Amino acid sequence: MPWRSILLTLVIAVFIISGFFEAKPQVLKDSETYGAETLYASAAGRPEAVLTDLEVIAHRGANNFFNEHTLTAYEIASEADADSIEIDLRMTKDHELIALHDTTLDRTTTGAGVPEEFTLNEIKQFDTVAVFGQKTYKEPVPTLEEIVTAFKQEEHYYIETRLVDGETKMEEPLINLLQENDLLDPKYVSFQSFSKESLKKLQEFAPEIRSTLLYGTDKFDLEDGLEADADVIGIESRNVTKCVVDTLHQQGKEVHVFFTDERTQLVEQQRVMMYGVDGIFTDDIDFTKQVLKE
């Protein structure tokens, strides 16, 4: 009936006038959309972004320039003056410690399968592989021993341990290797893990070394973090709020932030820095340092 159409028109008009139909909230643009130059300019224009004591941690080395977890990636990170180089550990079948993040060799190397099923000699038959621009780069999977031999006491090693077949198998050989190379000192090494059991084992061997308890995305629990026997709490950026940072700081714990979405990482770095976090696992050392105005 005509009166119904008139009434509906009037109702819609009232809603529009009253602001009922609001524009959708802006979606956070990713770093690729912004572009590096825009982000750098934005960072330089915010004096409150100066946090000179924030620790810049080279995530898997300078992995935006070269294959992650390789001697070359670590060398680039070292030349960029990162405060720490991050090393994820895996253990081979013959109990050697290698730098590798994933549970398998498939994504980052020419091999395939679980590293724990290969000896070190077999692992050395594979190369890490990655494409930058139009060129493919290859380099062997390094052992932890090769890394510390290359950099000695010139770097700070931020080492991540994990359980092997559900057991604490890599902690003792790690401690022994660091001792043999005169690196078991807070000046040269920090430990991190998603496993409380692994951290506990490391603390038994070397209680003086800083330890970081990591929480997976959306798995962070503030009460658990406050009670954890760890110096640092490592949190994925999407779970970081100013309240979380302030509360952990009040308990005397540092907060280090990692990122799992490369599209928004650079924007997220700027956000969490404003909350006063203590460390950033960065995939772009130059950008992070630009934000810090170093």
TrEMBL record:
<dbReference type="GO" id="GO:0008081">
    <property type="term" value="F:phosphoric diester hydrolase activity"/>
</dbReference>
<feature type="domain" description="GP-PDE">
    <location>
        <begin position="54"/>
        <end position="292"/>
    </location>
</feature>
<protein>
    <submittedName>
        <fullName>Glycerophosphoryl diester phosphodiesterase</fullName>
    </submittedName>
</protein>
<dbReference type="Pfam" id="PF03009">
    <property type="entry name" value="GDPD"/>
</dbReference>
<dbReference type="InterPro" id="IPR030395">
    <property type="entry name" value="GP_PDE_dom"/>
</dbReference>
<dbReference type="GO" id="GO:0006629">
    <property type="term" value="P:lipid metabolic process"/>
</dbReference>
<dbReference type="InterPro" id="IPR017946">
    <property type="entry name" value="PLC-like_Pdiesterase_TIM-brl"/>
</dbReference>
